[in-house]
Amino acid sequence: MSSLRLNTTQLPNKHLRNMKSDFLFHLEIPLNDPEILAKFQNVKFVCVGGTANRMQKLALHLAQEIKFETTGDVSFEYSFENERYSGFKVGPIFCVSHGIGTSSLSVMLHEVFKLLEQAKACDVTLIRIGTCGGIGITPGTVVISTGSVTVGFEEFYNTSCLGKLLRLPTTADPELVNDIYSCRSESDNFQVITGKTYCSEDFYQGQGRMDGSFCDYEKADKDDFLKQLYDIGVRNMEMESAGVLAMALRVGIKGKSARVGSCG
């Protein structure tokens, strides 16, 4: 699980102040519609995950948990679905799909952050929820990420700006980590742990898998890679945590990533 809290609604982009109108192209949401913006002013939690179906089910589940009252046949206060992303809002919770990897994730987050700013939302917590590959843990364990490790075993998200390398820190908010960890219950039929997350740029070679279309290493190399990760406190791997934490920190949101380990 990756998450962050947004304490200010002003994004660090001075050029946005001079734009007369804006349209969130990939989310297909116009920012000049006061009625739509009013619906998002009360957002306190943004939950993101890979697929539209998963986010829709999560929104429906959370609606029941917070006793969100629907109107007629409408299940959500606001929703959108297109070829790229889907979003579902219930009360103060906005669930959005992001696809696979940090590239797809970053596009969605840029536009969600702009939406929250225009809607004047504040004190927002960002949480990514999804599956992962576990490292030395029991299958089904929920891992609450304390930070994201990338290539070179460093806690930085490597991206670019105008053709130059941009390295952004990927540390999770410790208070939020503790808040989420404290929600565990003795009656849960699964384990909940904290640990670092390895964020790869690829599903196959990037994660040490040996069933891709090509593989340049042996099983012993893979095992050594996983041991190195375990020894520095990594307990799971996936493809989005670094982007979630880095972008949330960049705009002043407390962020966290929580995932269910799919293998030991």
UniProtKB/TrEMBL annotation:
Substrate binds at Q207, R209. Coiled coil: none annotated. Phosphate binds at R84, R128, I129, G130, T131. InterPro entries: Nucleoside_phosphorylase_d (IPR000845), Nucleoside_phosphorylase_sf (IPR035994), Uridine_phosphorylase_euk (IPR010059). Residues 44-254 form the Nucleoside phosphorylase domain. This is Nucleoside phosphorylase domain-containing protein. One of its GO terms (molecular function) is uridine phosphorylase activity. One of its GO terms (cellular component) is cytosol. It comes from Arion vulgaris.
